[in-house]
Amino acid sequence: MATQLPPSFFLYGEAEQVANPDFVHIEDLAARSRPSGWSISPHKHADLNHLILISSGGGVIQYESDFSEFIAPALLVVPAGAIHGFEWHTESGGQVLTIADVQLQQLCSEHGEFAKLFETSRCIALEPGECEAIDDSMTLIARELSWKGLGQSAALQAGLLMVMVQAARRLQHVEGEIQGTTRQRDIVARFRQLLEKRYRQREPVDTYARELGVSQTALREACAAMGQPPIAMRDQRAILESQRLLAFSAMSIAEIGEAVGIGDPAYFSRFFTRKCGSSPAQWRRDAMRGRTSGR
């Protein structure tokens, strides 16, 4: 059965394609939002990540099946693969920075403190001075992308690093100290990448550890430092996919269980209810009500 999930684009409205590993793009928020009536329909990007600076205005962002209101100044984080959409206040202002996932993963491997920023979609409230600093860094990136000159690659890297540092510092201020050691953050970042490919196989911890080239103890300790054991992270990814399919597809509950690696419908229903506090059928009804009245 067709899933009817929101479309996957390269940049919004553009046919999907594989991004160059070093792809970086920046544009004014109004460039795509104004022509579409300040409404961006739910969609996703397979291998592109967004940092969206909102310097004026605000609106409602849809992350997966959840809706959140925000006002400027704010920074919206959208990891690759996340379903997202927007209803902007008319003439909201800001900049949209897009980074290829390969480049982002390289930055995170060199600077482990950045990994937490893109663990999930999030909206980070900013102070006016922080907004101005990030805007300046994004403007530098935009300027370097507009021409070819000596040191362009270094200047782009510098601009990206400044945006990431400013965003990570603000997140740390909002959420508290960064967890774990640099090595533990690297292990968890690689583990999340592995889960993205293989969570449906529902493998044991020793298989994941072997694939990552670390001991089971090292993997368990790294995940514990981030607040969840490895199996809970695996199950969380399965739940996210289940919720996407419940919210956006016409698949039956049994088909959704099969799609996330749980072929027994009764066990999938118990698993989902235990994790989410309601049955898959009830969760779907609530999500449908949220989509029609939550905005």
Automatic annotation (TrEMBL):
InterPro entries associated with the record: Cupin_HpaA-like_N, Homeodomain-like_sf, HTH_AraC, RmlC_Cupin_sf
Protein name: Helix-turn-helix domain-containing protein
Coiled-coil ranges (or none): none
Transmembrane segments: none
Stretches assigned to the HTH araC/xylS-type domain: 189-286
PROSITE patterns assigned to the protein according to its UniProt record, in alphabetical order: HTH_ARAC_FAMILY_2
SMART domains (UniProt xref): HTH_ARAC (SM00342)
Lineage, broadest ranks: Bacteria, Pseudomonadati, Pseudomonadota, Alphaproteobacteria, Sphingomonadales
GO molecular function, one term: DNA-binding transcription factor activity
Keyword terms: DNA-binding, Transcription, Transcription regulation
